[in-house]
């Protein structure tokens, strides 16, 4: 059993929203990474990763988001991170400095 | 016929003597060999052999032989009803063959040994055929009616001794199986106390009762008590399989109703004819609640510090092995600090001629909150001290401790990624118990998780090691120490740097000390005074 789940939904012809749930740590980060990268294709122009349902993330999980962000930057694909304000996850995301390569948003934008 | 001057009846007594205690240590096979020597002597024959019916009751298997030891070594198997031995067992009648040939003997060893004449009788106990005893002569010999009668008398004693020994051995095996499967120690869970007992039924016979406590991948604790219908080795072996299957499914679901459903489908497919009652409870994070599902099992009893113990109102779904298509239900039972839950199998409250309600009422009267082990001891003494239970009995008590929030949290885990979740789980629980607000608590959880994650990733080589975590509540701060006994390798990639930034951002002080025997990371989170205690 994996304590994190990764759900992918297409929100437009060139956009995808990836919803992460649960706890992401060293034990399951490999699986999460594989599922995340699988969801990204070259045709996309916009990727949103929604962390609303994530109850724990540390630097092991952040590493995947940084890796993804760097890839998307190279491919010139937009990268949005949805993280609710006033949560421990938000604090971790803010401290990480990932805002340099992703736009961190409070709530999902209407599709 | 007698050549040594002793009458056959005297020599028959020598067979009875085999059941003496002097030979009590022998296994079934050794005992039979000893008996066969005396049968050979009694009837002055060259060979003697015993074939026993196997558990399928379709084949006779050569179990002991004298003069034709090859039979046993070659594992000779004769189908019931076929050949010389098969006919004896099927008809429950003696068979005498004056001339052995291909048409009447299936077993090539008997022919190749040059056996000319054979006499065989069934081994019968309580009207049931256990096997066959046969004797043979290398010269042609007419066995008389008196020989047949004598062999039948010997067979009675052989059957009796075999059955007694088989029963004794199967009981010893069942006992060993039970002992090997009941958990040697129950898991240690901060804030929860477990205790258990198991006793065999009347005459020391074990059955299919079991209890189990283990942690799930999610960090939740799963508690199980079950009872496989039946007795002895067969029930104990079935119990062993069900216990293992239930544990395997527990890796896939946290929902006890779903877990029991899966076990039921398994039983339906692989264990037809097996019936069992099982109670499965999964403790929610923070231990405030348990989610409980019952497959026809007697209801647990809840203890509380303010009043009498009460039977938990729990819908009992069908026992396992009846109809896996019926939906199963799960009920949430609350477990505040100071409360407890007592699980048991029906042997505890079952008395001949007395309704279960009487036993259950007595259990509620006896059950009072207290240290879990003392509670178990008291219940066993009060309910079973007077008379031996007919059935085996398993009980399990779990008590939620009243934490005052001042005791430090001390954890030690293997430095393995799977431990991280368990560490977070325990730290969250402890921080809630000491009254730290959710926001800062979660920041401490991430900082401790980060430090522990570093130990898992960097402290040890392939042989591994441990990660220790200690949290102390000081008047205005939480101090966490994460310790390992390895030598950190130099960090790879940018991950480490990021982890340190995180820790420094989440707590007020981070101190990393590289000591002679490992590394110590001390984290301090300052809290407003009102949030502690």
Task: Please outline what is shown here.
By secondary structure, chain A is α/β, with parallel strands linked by helices. Chain A contains 3 helices and 5 strands. In chain A, strands 1-2-3-4-5 form a 5-stranded mixed β-sheet, sandwiched between helices.
Provide structural commentary.
- The complex is a heterodimer of chains A (111) and B (533).
- Chain A is 32% helix and 35% strand.
- Chain A contains three helices and five strands.
- Chain A has helices at residues 29-38, 59-74, 88-96, and strands spanning 4-12, 15-24, 46-57, 78-82, 103-105.
- Chain A has a five-stranded mixed β-sheet, sandwiched between helices.
- Chain B folds into three domains: 8-174, Beta-Lactamase (2-Layer Sandwich), CATH 3.30.450; 182-400, PPM-type phosphatase domain (Phosphatase 2c, domain 1), CATH 3.60.40.10; 409-531, 2-Layer Sandwich (Heat Shock Protein 90).
- Chain B has 13 helices and 22 strands.
- Chain B has helices at residues 8-16, 28-43, 70-73, 83-91, 108-112, 145-181, 232-250, 256-270, 356-366, 372-384, 417-433, 438-458, 495-506; strands at residues 47-53, 59-66, 77-79, 95-97, 117-125, 128-137, 192-199, 207-215, 221-231, 276-283, 289-295, 301-304, 307-311, 316-317, 331-334, 340-344, 393-400, 409-414, 466-474, 477-484, 509-515, 518-526.
- In chain B, the strands form four sheets. In chain B, strands 3-2-1-6-5-4 form a six-stranded antiparallel β-sheet, sandwiched between helices. In chain B, strands 8, 9, 10, 11, 14 and 15 form a six-stranded mixed β-sheet that branches. Chain B has a five-stranded antiparallel β-sheet with strand order 7-17-16-12-13, covered by helices on one side.
- The mean pLDDT of chain B is 87.
- The chains are: A alpha/beta (111), B alpha+beta (533).
- Chains A and B meet through helix 2 and helix 3 of A and helix 11, helix 12 and helix 13 of B.
């Amino acid at each position: 059993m994996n304590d994190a789940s990764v759900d992918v939904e297409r929100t437009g012809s060139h956009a995808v929203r990836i919803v992460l749930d649960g706890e992401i740590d060293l034990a399951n980060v490999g699986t999460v990474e594989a599922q995340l990268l699988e969801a990204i294709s070259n045709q996309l122009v916009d990727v949103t990763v929604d962390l609303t349902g994530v109850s724990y993330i540390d630097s092991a999980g952040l590493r995947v988001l940084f890796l993804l962000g760097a890839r998307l930057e190279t491919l010139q694909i937009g990268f949005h991170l949805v993280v609710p304000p006033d949560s421990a996850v938000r604090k971790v995301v803010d401290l990480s400095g990932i805002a340099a390569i992703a736009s961190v948003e409070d709530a999902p934008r209407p599709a | 016929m007698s050549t040594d001057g002793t009458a056959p009846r005297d020599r028959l007594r020598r067979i009875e003597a085999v059941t003496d205690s002097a030979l009590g240590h022998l296994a079934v096979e050794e005992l039979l060999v000893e008996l066969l020597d005396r049968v050979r002597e009694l009837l002055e024959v060259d060979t003697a052999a015993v074939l026993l019916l196997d558990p399928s009751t379709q084949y006779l298997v050569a179990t002991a032989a004298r003069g034709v030891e090859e039979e046993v070594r070659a594992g000779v198997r004769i189908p019931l009803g076929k050949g010389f031995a098969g006919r004896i067992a099927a008809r429950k009648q003696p068979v005498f063959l004056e001339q052995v040939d291909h048409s009447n003997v299936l077993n090539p060893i008997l022919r190749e040994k040059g056996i000319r004449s054979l006499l065989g009788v069934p081994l019968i106990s309580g009207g049931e055929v256990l096997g066959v005893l046969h004797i043979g002569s290398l010269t042609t010999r007419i066995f008389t009616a008196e020989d047949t009668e004598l062999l039948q008398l010997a067979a009675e004693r052989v059957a009796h001794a075999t059955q007694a020994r088989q029963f004794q051995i199967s009981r010893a095996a069942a006992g060993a199986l039970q002992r090997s499967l009941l958990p040697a120690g129950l898991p240690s869970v901060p804030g929860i106390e477990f205790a258990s007992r198991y006793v065999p039924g009347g005459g020391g016979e074990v059955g299919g009762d079991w209890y189990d406590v283990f942690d799930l991948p999610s960090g939740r604790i799963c508690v199980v008590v079950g009872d496989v219908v039946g007795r002895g080795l067969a029930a104990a072996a079935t119990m062993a399989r069900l216990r293992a299957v239930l544990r395997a499914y527990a890796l896939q679901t946290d929902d006890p109703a779903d877990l029991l459903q899966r076990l039921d489908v398994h039983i339906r497919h692989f264990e037809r004819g097996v019936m069992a009652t099982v109670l499965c409870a999964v403790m929610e994070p923070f231990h405030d609640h348990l989610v409980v599902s019952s497959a026809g099992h007697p209801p647990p009893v809840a203890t509380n510090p303010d009043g009498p113990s009460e039977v938990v109102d729990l819908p009992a779904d069908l026992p396992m092995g009846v109809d896996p298509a019926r939906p199963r239900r799960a009920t949430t039972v609350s477990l505040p600090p100071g409360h407890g839950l007592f699980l048991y199998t029906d042997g505890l409250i079952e008395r001949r001629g007395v309704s279960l309600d009487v036993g259950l009422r007595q259990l509620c009267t006896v059950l009072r909150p207290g240290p879990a082990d003392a509670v178990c001891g008291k219940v066993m003494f009060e309910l079973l001290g007077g008379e031996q239970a007919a059935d085996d009995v398993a009980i399990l008590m779990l008590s939620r401790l009243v934490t005052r929030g001042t005791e430090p949290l001390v954890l030690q885990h293997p430095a393995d990624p799977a431990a991280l979740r368990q560490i977070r789980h325990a730290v969250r629980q402890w921080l809630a118990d000491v009254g730290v607000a959710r926001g800062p608590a979660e920041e401490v959880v991430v900082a401790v998780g980060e430090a522990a994650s570093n130990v898992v990733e960097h402290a040890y080589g392939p042989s591994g090691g441990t990660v220790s975590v200690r949290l102390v509540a000081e008047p205005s701060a939480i101090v966490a120490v994460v310790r390992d006994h390895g030598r950190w390798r130099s960090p790879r990639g940018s991950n480490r740097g990021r982890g340190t930034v995180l820790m420094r951002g989440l707590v007020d002080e981070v101190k990393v000390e590289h000591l002679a025997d490992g590394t110590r990371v001390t984290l301090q989170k300052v809290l407003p005074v009102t949030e502690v205690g």
